[in-house]
Amino acid sequence: MTVDSQVILSATQSIPLLHFYHSVLPPLKRAYSEHKHTAFEISCILSGSGLYKTQNALYHFHAGDIFLYSTNEIHYIIEIFDNCDILNLHFEPRFIWSPGNDLFDSKYLNIFFNHGDSFENCLEQDEDTARIRQLLLEIEKEFNEKLPDYELMVKVKVLTILVTLGRNFNFSIPQKALSQSRSQHLLQLDKALAYIDDNISSDIDLNTIAKTAHMSRSYFSTIFKEMNGLTPWEYIINKRVELAAHYLTSTDFSILDIACKCGFNNTANFNHAFKKVTRKSPSDFRKSGGN
């Protein structure tokens, strides 16, 4: 297995807002795991075939397929029949709605959040999915060449993908622009997320985070879930587990050290949270190399 990855960081350079992966995977078969994360995901199968399992469906994928996954949505490749070449674009919701991203609009969150009864994670192949595939390849080219303003070009191409999805795949995209008050809420929410990112290893509480956003605790929780697809604590736990997974696979730190570095005050809480997110204990995750 080979994986090439690229990243765009937040303005403070503290947290990745976008990850781009190009993976080449050999034939395999593995037990189902409830894999999920805080980012949206767009996956493109360049070649190969296999089985993709979600919480509610099982997809037999082939070359040309495009998959969409929302935040905290369970999905996992359980079998690959022949060598697979896959592109994965992961981006945090605030990559769309962040106040500094003037080209982006929070209405495009509806592509991932507002799924009707007929929604399928796998898009029907047509000229529009071919266009999305081409845009993902162009994003990879921008990352590889790193010409001036390549990050801006990546953002433009992500927006083009979202507009293509909104126009052609029957997603409900509201046309009403954000009110001035809602724009201010996004600015405050962005500050709160920056506070969480900067203090992810510390003992933080929801009251303090809400004060950072100049909102009541209950209203902050409502706005946070509306714009990110998960509650503040779900976000914090997921981010802490992501950080712990990085330490488990890239360092020889002890389980206790990793727990402390990731904001858990004891190994019992760490083990419980880690297993809830990954369905594996930290020790088993380390032994498996994260697979």
From TrEMBL:
Q: Which residues form the HTH araC/xylS-type domain?
A: 190-288
Instruction: Kindly list the GO molecular function terms attached to this UniProt entry.
Output: DNA-binding transcription factor activity; sequence-specific DNA binding
Q: Which SMART domains match?
A: HTH_ARAC (SM00342)
Q: Which InterPro entries match?
A: AraC-bd (IPR003313), Homeodomain-like_sf (IPR009057), HTH-like (IPR037923), HTH_AraC (IPR018060), HTH_AraC-typ_CS (IPR018062), RmlC-like_jellyroll (IPR014710)
Judging by the UniProt lineage, the source's domain of life is: Bacteria
Report keywords, A-Z.
DNA-binding, Transcription, Transcription regulation
Question: What protein am I looking at?
Answer: Transcriptional regulator, AraC family
